[in-house]
Amino acid sequence: MRAEGLPRYEYITSLHNGRVPDGHEDFNAGIGAAEMLGRANYVALVGGGRNPKFPTNKVIIWDDAKQLAVVTLEFHSQVFRALLSRSQILVALLNSVSLYAFSSPPKKVSSFETADNPSGLCCLGSKIVAFPGRTPGQVQIVEIGTGNPAKQEPSSGSSPPRTAPASPSSEEASIPPTSSPLPSPPPPPS
Q1: DSSP for residue 49
Q2: Are 59 and 76 in contact (CB under 8 A)?
């Protein structure tokens, strides 16, 4: 999730069986992006806002159980999003995405160029990753095991996609075209 235009995130918590525990972590500074690893105690954090807690070019993997950073990835440019799975870390920069093995230290598996992606649009599945292609309006789907492109899907129009719904357990990612307008709501009953 992106904190752009929203108040800074002050509390990062873990959810246990759908409820928030009594403890929390007050970072007392800005967090620009935060992604949890399912129900595990790991959270990928990126600094943001006027007073960032972490540099905006670093991904911090925070262990909520130990209350400390267990992994740090540093880049030459701003990080827009980081996704976690039990075996992978996917990081979205402005013009590229990088895939790492979730290990200590993390090992870079592959890196791919993208069109400008200031929203950090990307999906991480169990066997594939999806992200913008090199040309605006295209989506590239890559197999994690081989690093080979699975397919490249053109969207309708030349505007880049803005949303990427895909469940972490899905084998296929679905990124709908965004150039078609949403249907109008029905008129109110009279």
Answers
A1: S
A2: no
Q: What is the pLDDT of residues 120-150, one digit of tens each?
A: 999 999 899 999 999 998 999 999 888 777 7
Q: In the chain, count H helices and then E strands.
A: 0, 14
Residue type (1 letter), 101: A
Token code pair at residue 25:
């972590």
Q: What is the pLDDT of residues 2-17, one digit of tens each?
A: 444 433 333 333 333 3
Question: SS3 letters for 100-169?
Answer: EECCCCCEEEEEEECCCCCCCCCEECCCEEEEECCCCCEEEEEECCCCCEEEEEECCCCCCCCCCCCCCC
3-class secondary structure, 1: coil
Hey, CA dihedral for 177, 179, 183, 184, is it positive or negative?
positive
Q: Which of 150, 103, 94 is nearest to 122 (CA)?
A: 94
Contact assessment for residue 117 and residue 95, using Cβ atoms and an 8 Å cutoff: yes
The closest alpha carbon to 151, from 164, 136, 140, belongs to: 140
